[in-house]
Amino acid sequence: MKKILFGLFFSIVFLLGCKRDNILKQPQWGDIFKKHGIDSACFELADNSHDQIFLYNLERCSRRFSPASTFKIMNSLIALETNIAPNENMIISWDGISRKPDWDKNLSMRDAFKVSSVPYYQELARRIGAVEMQKWIDTVRYGNKRMGGALDQFWLNDTLQISPDEQVGFMKKLYFDKLPMSQRSQRIVRSMMLQEDSTNYKLYYKTGTEFNSEDPNHLTKAWIVGFVERKEIQKTVLTKKEETNYRPYFFAMHIETADTNMKTLEVRKAILHDILKERQIID
Question: Which 3 state secondary structure label does DSSP give 53?
Answer without folding.
Answer: strand
